Amino acid sequence: MPDKQWRYVVTIEDAIAGGCKLFDINELRDEYNGDDFNNLFMCIFVDGNDCVFKFSDLEKCGIDQHSWRDFKPKQSRPFANAEVWLGYDPSRTRDNATLVVIAPPIQAGHPFRVLEKHHWRGLNFQHHVAEIQKIFSKYRVTYIGVDTTGIGAGVFDLINTLYPREARAIHYSVSSKTRLVLKMIDVVESRRILWDVSHKDIASSFLAIRRSSTANGDNITFKAGRDQTTGHADVFFAIAHAVINEPINHAQRGTSTWALAS
Predict the structure, then answer these.
(1) Confidence class of residue 93 from pLDDT cuts 50, 70 and 90?
(2) Which of 43, 146, 233, 256 has a 20 to 30 A CA-CA distance from 29?
(3) Which domains can be identified in the chain, with CATH numbers?
């Protein structure tokens, strides 16, 4: 290989040719966009030259989820009564809608943790809301960030009616997208987010974020191909929609001038 390392490559097509029948390749092609499919199943390495995130940083975010003593996924209340935040990224053409459950830091310096990740196909926002309600019944949710683009508008209307204190609409613009990405850069580079190492699509989703410029060339922005052919980065944006609930300048908290009467 170009990096002077020898690798024995077995693609998903090689596995099928060898008699493996443990998966449906057409279903996987449906579930993943072209770039992610090639990276995860065809052994094609990601070109990191213009990626916002470094693979070496993302590698450090993957750990064994079983080491989290306070998280018991098989129980009816997996995280007991501890606080969680949700992030929802809506379907766009072929994209799956994605919801993530994030445990925010309890103390300064502690990491965010991705507890659960859900993908839902189709444009039936009533179904998405019903699934989100199941998450609310399992966890103590204090915040859910919803991108209101497309189907997200319908999801947000219902979620805002059911959970008005927790629901927050995220309206996309150059500045809001930049804010989301900058927040995630800070979180990843300071190693303040962790996910289970088996969720390899999370790292792929982060690597899909690229630097770009606005149409008039005046501003730097970020993009991830989200058209009918290459819709992706849904997991990244779902995570960002949750994590952005923490102020960007989280380390410098203002001094309150309020006092409580004794």
Answers:
(1) low
(2) 146
(3) 49-243 (3.30.420.240)
